[in-house]
Amino acid sequence: MAQQPPTIISLKHAFLTAQTLTLAQPLSPSRAWQKTNDAADNGLPEKAVADALVRLNHVLSQHCKRAYAPQATRHVAEQVDGLYWQALVRADQDEDEDGEGVDVGVDLADPQTISTLPPTFFPPQEDSEADPQSQTHQQYTTLLKHLTSLTTQITHHKARIARLSALKKMLSPFAADADDLSSTIQPNLVTRGGEMEGELERMRVLLARVG
After folding, report:
1. I need a labelling partner for 147 at 20 to 30 A (CA). Which of 67, 106, 127, 137 fits?
2. What is the distance between the alpha carbons of residues 162 and 42, in angstroms, rounded to a whole number?
3. What is the dihedral of CA 154, 155, 158, 164, to 10 degrees?
4. What is the 3-state secondary structure (H, E, C) of the chain?
5. Nearest to residue 110, comparing CAs of 151, 146, 145, 156?
6. Is the distance from CB of 28 to CB of 53 less than 8 angstroms?
7. Are 26 and 60 in contact (CB under 8 A)?
């Protein structure tokens, strides 16, 4: 099964998570500062520097846990995704005021939506000099033909399912057990052990007595 492409939310969430992990890394003195401090006559004691770093890194860790919690990061990613789609909708409305083209977020699995798609695709900024042989146009035409073919197949399968469902409903009385067919369909059928067989046996005995 082909792997689904990542969504905008997942990409932004992964990026924000990576950045917050970078910000949450413990701090330590650089080699240049350490060398300068060691060479100075009144340099800071190593124990004092270590204690200060421990307290600073503790404060930094607590701040990152509160400010960059997974729920907050997810919320920011969702906000970015919402702004992204709003920008697309505004751009689509500005570039497609005549009502042609494909709206953002339409359901391309809906046969009615597919039937309303334009037969050709021309970028809005190149309407006057659109090349029918361009790669974009060819890709759009190929995808539209594929969608139209799938729509035809869906319509055919839905009609077939409807016919089979109607037949199943008509044949539902025959779905009983074989031993109960005589009582569920036609009790007067001559079947082994059925009511008609018993009546015929009693009639034969009666005729024998009368004779």
Report:
1. 127
2. 91
3. -120
4. CCCCCCCHHHHHHHHHHHHHHHHCCCCCCCHHHHHHHHHCCCCCCHHHHHHHHHHHHHHHHHHHHHHCCHHHHHHHHHHHHHHHHHHHHHHHHHHCCCCCCCCCCCCCCCHHHHHCCCCCCCCHHHCCCCCCCCHHHHHHHHHHHHHHHHHHHHHHHHHHHHHHHHHHHHCHHHHCCHHHHHHHCCCCCCCCCCHHHHHHHHHHHHHHHHC
5. 151
6. yes
7. yes
Please list the pLDDT of the chain residue by residue as tens digits (211 residues): 456 677 778 888 888 888 888 888 888 888 898 888 888 888 888 888 889 999 999 998 888 888 888 888 888 888 888 887 777 777 666 555 554 555 656 677 777 777 777 777 655 444 445 455 567 778 888 888 888 888 888 888 999 999 999 988 888 776 655 555 555 555 556 666 667 777 888 888 888 888 7
> Is residue 131 within 8 Å of 137, Cβ to Cβ?
yes
Burial degree of 77 (CB within 10 A; 0-12, 13-18, 19+): buried
